[in-house]
Amino acid sequence: MRTRVGLWIDHKKAIIVAVTDKGEEAKLVISTAEKHLSRSGDSPLKGRYEADQVPPDDRRQKTFTGHLNIYYDAVIACIRQAEAILIFGPGEAKGELRKRLERVNRGGRIVAVETEDRMTYRQIAARVRQHFAQAGQGRPT
């Protein structure tokens, strides 16, 4: 059974649409990564100890990167069986996922990486069906 996958991805969520000979299946993967960690409490701290209360930027970046690694691993686990992969989305996440797929020897399965803005689930599913139908890899009728 041939499986073609299209996924819309950003740093917060990935919507994965798998098209097979039997039909279509969708999955949602949510990220726990928070780009801009904020201070706890009601107002900014005052006084000479504020630097001790706010974590340094490099520690926050390492935490963010760690969360993204877990997120990308979860997405890759969902698309492991795909023969062809279409990646699209609004920001940097699509390129980061492509590089990660190349590192795990799945880069040859990527058919396209495209920039798309925010989309609804129906728009994402239609985009995936349209791409694979135009590429001659659509579902037989």
Chart the SSEs and their pairings.
Blueprint: E1 3-9, E2 13-20, E3 23-30, H1 50-53, H2 57-78, E4 84-89, H3 93-103, E5 110-115, H4 121-134
Parallel strand pairs: 1-4, 4-5
Antiparallel strand pairs: 1-2, 2-3
Fold and architecture overview:
- The protein is α/β, with parallel strands linked by helices and 141 residues long.
- The protein has a single domain, classed as eRF1 domain 2 (Nucleotidyltransferase, domain 5, 2-Layer Sandwich), CATH 3.30.420.60.
- Helix content is 36%, strand content 25%.
- It contains four helices and five strands; from the N terminus they run E-E-E-H-H-E-H-E-H.
- The chain has helices spanning 50-53, 57-78, 93-103, 121-134, and strands spanning 3-9, 13-20, 23-30, 84-89, 110-115.
- It has a five-stranded mixed beta sheet with strand order 3-2-1-4-5, sandwiched between helices.
- The model has no long low-confidence stretch (mean pLDDT 84).
Question: Would you summarize the structure shown here?
Answer:
The chain is α/β, with parallel strands linked by helices and 141 residues long.
Features of the shown structure:
Nucleotidyltransferase, domain 5; alpha/beta; 141 residues
Order of helices and strands: EEEHHEHEH
- Record the strand order, biggest sheet: 3-2-1-4-5
Percent of residues in beta strands? 15-25%
The N- to C-terminal Cα distance equals 15 Å
Extract low-pLDDT stretches.
Answer: none
- CATH topology tier name: Nucleotidyltransferase, domain 5
Gross geometry: globular
The Cα radius of gyration reads: 19 Å
- What would CATH call the architecture? 2-Layer Sandwich
Q: What is the count of β-strands?
A: 5
* Helicity, as a percent range: 25-40%
